[in-house]
Automatic annotation (TrEMBL):
This is 16S rRNA (cytosine(967)-C(5))-methyltransferase. One of its GO terms (molecular function) is methyltransferase activity. GO terms for biological process: methylation. PANTHER family: NOP2 YEAST -RELATED NOL1/NOP2/FMU SUN DOMAIN-CONTAINING, RIBOSOMAL RNA SMALL SUBUNIT METHYLTRANSFERASE B-RELATED. It comes from the Bacteria. It comes from Candidatus Nitronereus thalassa. The lineage of its organism: Bacteria, Pseudomonadati, Nitrospirota, Nitrospiria, Nitrospirales.
Length: 468
């Protein structure tokens, strides 16, 4: 990075600008290290002196900039004398922070938004960029909103700018689904997701959880498709949600809640969750099994498995055994993993690492970090995992492959290639095992696909394979 990209640290003495400084710091971490924005935010604010209000503003700024980056850059580009790509990264981020406040946050006066961004620019080492930031943002306050690009002239640009979706991804969705459905998918991918809970049936029924939450003053709605889900209105921080802390529920999108149903697990089954952390699907499987049987939860990240272990304890589950292991190199050296698999498995879940393009509304940074060039590597790794784990499935056993993506390279093509190489597996239609409300969410091939559904859920794919 250029010298002028040095990172301005948030200062406790800057009570008015600390929210912007923290947001800028997080955005730079995301840009430099390609980390999840929520994880970077938690890491950088865990010892912060920010008040609850300022912390909320900082969070809003981070995710607002990432969610609307395409539109912000379009507006800023018209006001800069040279391309944004010619400016230091830190100045671009400051301009985006200012533009987001000016265009999307009515509660912040324009003058305050501009002045606080100018202060941030003055703290950047090297050249003084405060004049540039001040000039661009003040011109933005004076500029009338330009008309959106005409979709009849350039449909890709029109959707990319209106919904801040990268042009390469917009083009793919238009080619696959047509303009109208692509627009709906772009709109959904840029929306703010709901807070959805999955009931922990080991502790309570959905009805009982709903009654408790309502008695505590929360606005609660039952999910339409998943029989386990509840959607909450504004509820403050999750640390105040006592039902969550006491293990009555788990935060999980409605689409993700559907995948474990496809395995049709039964009490006493031996199950492998091959890519388990942080444990949403593994803990759902344990609940469906009534905590009777064995689930080996494997992940290559010890840190993420720690989160799984904490969830197991909180939810009161005893049948899940976390193991650190990799399916690419040296997995057999993890003796608990190998010993468990060699005894034979009744069910296997491969919730494969992927682009995550089905969950970009939760991780908007992913839109700007991914490219079509990454798909071949993803596909090879996904296929390798399937090949390795499939050996240990007993005849009659079931393997479910899922991904938080709808891109063919990471979904249907993986299944097609696997079935060609493994004729002992039968590709089954999932409709039999889905909850009744989800039966419309299937593809002509019989797989689960939630991208672009009429429900407010993430984009997931899942296929069911039986070893015959």
């Amino acid at each position: 990075m250029p010298a002028s990209d040095s990172d301005p640290r948030p200062s406790a003495s800057h009570t008015k600008s600390s929210s912007r400084a923290v947001a800028l710091h997080v955005l730079l971490e995301v840009e430099r290290r390609h980390v999840f924005a929520d994880e970077a935010f938690q890491q950088l604010t865990k010892n912060s002196p920010l008040s609850t209000v300022d912390r909320g503003l900082a969070f809003d700024l981070v995710f607002g900039v990432l969610r609307h980056r395409g539109h912000l850059d379009w507006r800023l580009h018209a006001l800069t004398k040279k391309s944004l790509s010619g400016l230091p990264t830190i100045i671009v981020m400051i301009l985006r922070l200012g533009a987001y406040q000016l265009l999307y946050l009515d509660r912040i006066p324009d003058s305050a938004a501009v002045n606080e961004c100018v202060k941030l620019a003055k703290r950047v080492k090297g050249r003084d960029w405060s004049g540039v930031v001040n000039g661009v943002l003040r011109n933005l306050t004076r500029q009338a909103d330009p008309p959106w690009p005409d979709p009849t002239e350039d449909p890709v640009q029109a959707l990319s700018i209106r919904y801040s979706c990268p042009p390469w991804l917009t083009q793919r969705w238009i080619d696959r689904f047509g303009f109208d459905r692509a627009e709906e998918i772009c709109r959904q991918s840029n929306s703010i997701p709901p807070l959805t809970l999955r009931t922990n049936a080991l502790r309570a029924s959905r009805h009982k959880l709903k009654e408790r939450l309502q008695a505590e003053g929360y606005s609660v709605t039952e999910t339409v498709v998943s029989p386990l889900g509840l959607t909450l209105g504004k509820c403050g921080t999750l640390t105040t949600l006592t039902a969550l802390q006491e293990g009555w529920c788990y935060v999980e999108d409605e689409a993700a809640q559907l995948v474990p149903f496809l395995l049709d697990v039964q009490p006493g089954h031996r199950v492998l969750d091959a890519c388990a952390a942080p444990g949403g699907k593994a803990t759902n499987l344990a609940s469906l099994m009534k905590d009777q049987g064995e689930i080996l939860a494997v992940d290559r990240s010890a840190q993420r498995l720690q989160a799984l272990q904490e969830n197991i304890v909180r939810l009161g589950i005893t049948c899940i055994h976390p193991v650190v292991g990799s399916w690419s190199e040296g997995w057999a050296t993890a003796s608990p993993l190998r010993a468990f698999c060699e005894k034979g498995l009744d069910r296997i879940l491969v919730d494969a690492p992927c682009s995550g393009l089905g969950v970009v509304r939760r991780h908007p940074e992913a839109k700007w970090q991914k490219s079509v060039d990454q798909f071949p590597d993803h596909q090879r790794f996904q296929g390798e995992i399937l090949h390795q784990v499939s050996t240990y499935l007993r005849p009659g056993g079931v393997l479910v492959y899922s991904a938080c993506s709808a891109e063919p390279e990471e979904t249907t093509e993986v299944i097609t290639q696997f079935c060609l190489a493994h004729p002992e597996f039968r590709h089954e239609e999932v409709v039999t095992w889905l909850p009744s409300g989800a039966k419309a969410l299937t593809t002509p091939e019989g797989d689960l696909m939630t991208l672009g559904s009429p429900y407010d859920m993430d984009g997931f794919f899942a296929a069911r394979l039986q070893k015959v």
